[in-house]
Amino acid sequence: MSDTAPSALETLTLKASGCTACGLAAERTNVVFGSGSPTADILFIGEAPGFNEDQQGVPFVGAAGKLLDRLLGEIGLEHDDAYIANVLKCRPPGNRDPRSDEIEACKDFLADQLRLIDPAVVMTLGNFATKLLLKRDVGITRLRGQVYPWWNRYLVPTFHPAAALRGGATVLGHMQEDFALVRGILDDAAAAEQADPDAEQLGLFS
Ligand code: URA
Asked: Is 119 within the bounds of a domain?
């Protein structure tokens, strides 16, 4: 038996591993709950696990994940500086789009991840994550490129990395602009904290 009590995030991960709230449970190899730092300042939200993620139980381990790591590297961050999650924790068969009943069944897990990790910035990757958080039925092409206030923190929507893999340099360039917005927010928050060590209590990071 471990001599330390499991964290709330570990308890939630365990709960998700036995989830049967929707039909995807019958088809999955692994629940892909999330990975990265439980104290990250930035949390990424993708769409749903693909084949590789389902096999390994870890989000963004395939080609899209490699591009995500590259974009993180370009703003001076590593995979482990972030926390990475998805709207759905189980793979839709054949990588089809998430269905609304599946999103509904899964969304409390994402809400709990956001509450427990409490990042300064949330970056949504693609339409499903962006629509779920911003509750606006507008496509990512129109929503990206801006910073949105979101529950006392910042939300920066961008394309899904798979779109950049398909769409080439233009989509990738837009994603780089959006990642630069994230860098700016983190820098501003760090500068504010340095100028005023009580900044954390002023709610900059909450
Ligand atoms: N695409 C996603 O949206 N999430 C993953 O984990 C992998 C690919």
From this structure: yes
